[in-house]
Amino acid sequence: MIHHSDSFPASGGLHIRRRPREESYPLARRVSKMERRITPRCFLSGSARATTQSLESDSVRSARDRRVRPAAHQPALSVEPRYATASSMVRPKDACSEETWNRIVSAARHELVETDDGEVDVSVRQVATRAGVSLGTIHYYFPTKENLLEACLDVYYTRLGALAFELAPLLMQTDTRAVIEQVTRRFYCFAVAERRSLKLRAKLNAQLGYLEPQRARQVRGPMLDAFASQIGSMGGLDVAEARLTIQTMTGLIMHLALLADADLEQIAGAGGEPGRQIVEDHVARVALRLVFPR
Question: HTH tetR-type domain location, by residue (predicted)?
Answer without folding.
Answer: 98-160
